[in-house]
Write a structure and sequence with these properties.
Elements: E1 4-9, H1 16-28, E2 35-38, H2 44-48, E3 57-63, E4 68-74, E5 92-98, H3 107-121, E6 125-131
Antiparallel strand pairs: 1-5, 1-6, 2-3, 3-4, 4-5
Helix pairs in contact: 1-3
Amino acid sequence: MKHQILFGIECNHKDEKLILQSMKNYLSNFKRTTSTVKQGTSLDTRLEARLPYKIKQYHWNLNKATATYTELFPNQDLEGKYFLEQHKNYAWLILVLFHKDSPNYEENKSEKFISDMLESIGFKYKILIESDSNDRIQGDCKMN
């Protein structure tokens, strides 16, 4: 797999709690959980880095044991703009970063960790974008 993969979760916007709880249940097998970044928190600068795409919050996990980082965030922002306009049927997106330079990265182990997590969610999912770039995958919203 590439360094970065953006998966689309085929669901409704209201399915956030179901997806997040499924992720937390899966991660608990590894004594891991997700963290949430909301507007107004000390990590708010991560939200500002996404401008012009404006979201209320996102959920993330860094699993050092598998050298994987994941973010769950909405495809549609607070102003109605889509991160990926052509994929409106995927209300939630999961960005996965494989830290291939980490000593804990093992291709099969790391990929299995992510594929099992995606399967545990219980919704259909699809790879929407893959990249080996170190630059974060950008959506359709561009700065003016």
